[in-house]
């Protein structure tokens, strides 16, 4: 990895860019999974990433909050370098504490809801604000109730995950992420594990967040959501961004043959 600190300033765009990757490279062994990705998300934007299975979408999301270590390139979140810091003109790996701080500012919603099974919906939501952010419990509980209401689960605060449907569990997971007051939300195929009739209720919450101006990146197979909600659609194939633009462009008269082929298979 090139660790020279020479080209990492972008003051002009710092105020508007929430995510910026520069020539991001990620390999698993000999398999290049991200091959020079320049990916940008402006503050307040909802960006949807689409593309065939195995094209690198999930890995891109996981790199953004350093769940995966990158092999080359740079990632900035809100102007801050991810996973590395400058020391004597070189890049060195950042401390665990700084990486944990970064993660606490990014909400990550997984395909599998990953709720604590032995905690109620409310307890799931208040855990991190109390133990990571050290906020006072009564304040956190009050906010958790507001968030449960927001995701349509005001009456489920005492329910344990096994008593909730997949869609309800995923909505608790979204409320749990929001409880940390994230500056960015990442959704990794948040509806793929759900029965079809439960997909809509989760997409509705995601749509509402986008309309409220939450900065988000969603990897999804839901093309209707991409078309209706995204400000910007990114099409990935074989470890690269092949095409990107507003949904009208991608779903309208896109010129790229790989994009057209993909869309003709999924629409
Ligand atoms: P997508 O989200 O577009 O389906 P992924 O990012 O999940 O794609 O995967 C991209 C490629 O990286 C695939 O070839 C996958 O097998 C590989 N891959 C993903 N995670 C790992 C891992 N932890 N170890 C090895 N290979 C991986």
TrEMBL record:
The keyword Cell membrane applies. CDD domains: ABC_HisP_GlnQ. Residues 19-263 form the ABC transporter domain. Transmembrane segments: none annotated. SUPFAM superfamilies: P-loop containing nucleoside triphosphate hydrolases (SSF52540). Gene3D superfamilies: P-loop containing nucleotide triphosphate hydrolases (3.40.50.300). One of its GO terms (cellular component) is plasma membrane. It is found in: Cell membrane. It is a peripheral membrane protein. SMART domains: AAA. InterPro entries: AAA+_ATPase, ABC_ATPase_HisP-typ, ABC_transporter-like_ATP-bd, ABC_transporter-like_CS, MetN_ABC_transporter-like, P-loop_NTPase. Belongs to the ABC transporter superfamily. This is ATP-binding protein. It comes from Dictyobacter vulcani.
């Amino acid at each position: 990895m090139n660790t020279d600190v020479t080209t990492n300033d972008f003051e002009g765009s710092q105020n508007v860019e929430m995510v910026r990757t520069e020539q991001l490279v990620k390999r698993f062994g000999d398999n290049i999974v991200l091959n020079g990705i320049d990916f940008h998300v402006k503050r307040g934007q909802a960006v949807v990433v689409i593309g065939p299975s195995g094209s690198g979408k999930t890995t891109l999301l996981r790199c953004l909050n350093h769940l995966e270590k990158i092999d080359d390139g740079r990632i900035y979140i809100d102007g801050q370098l991810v996973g590395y810091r400058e020391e004597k003109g070189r890049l060195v790996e950042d401390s665990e504490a700084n990486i944990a701080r970064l993660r606490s500012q990014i909400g990550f919603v997984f395909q599998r809801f990953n709720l604590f099974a032995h905690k109620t919906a409310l307890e799931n939501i208040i855990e991190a604000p109390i133990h990571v952010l050290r906020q006072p419990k009564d304040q956190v509980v009050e906010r958790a109730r507001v968030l449960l209401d927001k995701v349509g689960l005001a009456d489920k605060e005492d329910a344990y995950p096994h008593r909730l449907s997949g869609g309800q569990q995923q909505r608790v997971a979204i409320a749990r992420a929001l409880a940390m007051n994230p500056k960015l939300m990442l959704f990794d195929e948040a509806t793929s594990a759900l029965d079809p009739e439960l997909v809509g209720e989760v997409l509705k919450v995601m749509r509402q967040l986008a309309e409220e101006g939450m900065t988000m990146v969603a990897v999804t197979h839901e093309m209707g959501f991409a078309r209706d909600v995204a400000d910007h659609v990114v099409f990935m194939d074989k470890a690269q961004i092949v095409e990107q633009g507003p949904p009208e462009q991608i779903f309208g008269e896109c010129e790229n043959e790989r994009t057209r082929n993909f869309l003709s298979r999924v629409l």
